[in-house]
Description:
This protein is α/β, with parallel strands linked by helices. The chain has twelve helices and 13 strands. The strands form two sheets. A nine-stranded mixed sheet has the order 2-1-4-3-5-6-13-12-9. A four-stranded antiparallel sheet has the order 8-7-10-11. The chain starts with a strand and ends in a 14-residue tail after the last helix.
Amino acid sequence: xxxxxxxxxxxxxxxxxxxxxxxxxxxxxxxxxxxxxxxxxxxxxxxxxxxxxxxxxxxxxxxxxxxxxxxxxxxxxxxxxxxxxxxxxxxxxxxxxxxxxxxxxxxxxxxxxxxxxxxxxxxxxxxxxxxxxxxxxxxxxxxxxxxxxxxxxxxxxxxxxxxxxxxxxxxxxxxxxxxxxxxxxxxxxxxxxxxxxxxxxxxxxxxxxxxxxxxxxxxxxxxxxxxxxxxxxxxxxxxxxxxxxxxxxxxxxxxxxxxxxxxxxxxxxxxxxxxxxxxxxxxxxxxxxxxxxxxxxxxxxxxxxxxxxxxxxxxxxxxxxxxxxxxxxxxxxxxxxxxxxxxxxxxxxxx
Length: 351
């Protein structure tokens, strides 16, 4: 079933995606699930994040009709290009706070302060969480948003890690739950973060841990909040196949520009032997060139074997990610059927 973008505000990358329609009139009996995507990612990742969640929801939805509407927190640092994108394709937070959606997905952003409560967007995030408790059947909080959510509601602080948690990790399914139905014993999930929330702190405050990894800690955990089930991911099941490669490439560029002291550690469980050999050779040359100052950062960076490495990458986590989100959508559908359907959405043109 195609996904509809409400009121025709379709970002450029999504205009090329398969399974897209603009929102069209429906009767109450066939009204689609309405999902609010509150995308708080930095400018460089805004459109990639839109596409990642669109593609994941497309795979998860099956025959369920969905509509998607884009929002973002105010007071996030934005360049002119980012602000222009939001003005063209996103709706204001005030509109979201006056509405009801079946589900919401709230992404993280790049932290600027060690204490998230000092971030300029913190008051708006608190208002958003309070809204979601009353006006969704379930809300997903992704990565930094999960950390912010447990801090805001239960005072659980995040703990810094000795090194970046970076790669694709195998997680054990810890408890039966509607969200983990059909997963089997394990699921693979990408992570990219410098902090974590710990299992004992979560369990002591009533969170149910659904998946956990010896190498990456807790990933998926849940807790009911008023009218809504809050679903938290420390990882990024929505990531596309090459997202971690893009992050690794960005960190290498920072190293070559001497914006960081050490060559970045490659993502774990992500590259095969062929790609690892290519990257090891590049690392040796890059470290030697920087030590001798024998090449400019752009000259060295141009030798990065991106195409050859990208050709080896397999999205090994997408099937389990689609399963979890399919379960989430069916949870929303069951809740919707148990209550009055929302008003029909506005009419628009099919594309």
